[in-house]
Amino acid sequence: MEQIDTWAKIQNEEDLMNDHHAPFWRAMISQMTEADLHNASVLDFGCNQGGFLRTLFRMKPFKKGLGVDLAVKSLETAENLKGNMPLHYTTPDILNSMEHEFDTAFSHDVIYLLPDLNEHANILKRVLKPNGVYYAATGCYAEMPLWPIWKKEVESYSNVPLPDYSINDFARAFWKAGFDVALQKCIPQGFVTCWPDREAYFPEVTDFLKYYDYKIIFRFSKKD
Question: In the 3-class helix/strand/coil scheme, how is the chain assigned residue by residue?
């Protein structure tokens, strides 16, 4: 995929992504198996403005982190916001020269956007260390009841095309690449704000609650 300025054509949609995703970031981090990342090198694939790695570092500090994204202006924002955290943000082509670099990798609502899942799985296989783990969370797939209206809404402002994957497509790509595949629901703890400007995604408040049944975290474990 070619580089773009930002993921969304609408700047407000781009800027609010951190607020909307933060409860699920915290859930991913709380639900991951690894309790201590102090000696770990971590990768955020599709980092946007860098909020996930900043959240992860505050909750579970790590040795160093790399965020990659196609959206170059979002990467600039991420670099400006990292402070003194051991983070670097750049485009995904940096991964072409990396092998056995990361202990743990993450993505949040990115995997459903990728044009080639097999290629993505093979990239993660190469850059992860032996026995490395990739956590990929998403609620965007064909079996999710709200996906038809979400897909139409996201396509209206997205700078990248949207595939139409099933949950099986994600698992099969990583099985094919030689990973063990496990998963669980991604459920935020405590109260989560219902945003009034999210009615295009959640027509009813009950839809917001039902979404918890479909938001999932994959744990792809490299078998070597």
Answer: CCCECCCECCHHHHHCHHHHHHHHHHHHHHHCCCCCCCCCEEEEECCCCCHHHHHHHHHCCCCEEEEECCEHHHHHHHHHHCCCCCEEEECHHHHHHCCCCEEEEEEECCHHHCCCHHHHHHHHHHHEEEEEEEEEEECCCCCCCCHHHHHHHHHCCECCCCCCCCHHHHHHHHHHCCEEEEEEECCCCCCCCCCHHHCCCCCCHHHHHHHCCCCEEEEEEECC
Distance CA 138, CA 185 (A): 10
The C-alpha atoms of residue 114 and residue 127 are separated, in whole angstroms, by 17
Of all residues in the chain, the percent with pLDDT exceeding 90 is 70
Provide the residue ranges of all domains of the chain, joining segments of one domain with +.
11-222
Q: If you average pLDDT over residues 39-59, what whole number do you get?
A: 96
Over the stretch 16-39, which tens digit does the pLDDT of each residue have?
566 678 899 999 999 999 999 999
Report angle CA 16, 119, 11 to the nearest 5 degrees.
Answer: 15
C-beta of residue 28 within 8 angstroms of C-beta of residue 108: yes
Q: What is the pLDDT of residues 161-186, one digit of tens each?
A: 789 999 999 999 999 999 999 999 99
**CATH class given for the domain over 11-222:** alpha beta
Beta pairing class for 64-68 and 87-90: parallel
Q: What's the pTM?
A: 0.92
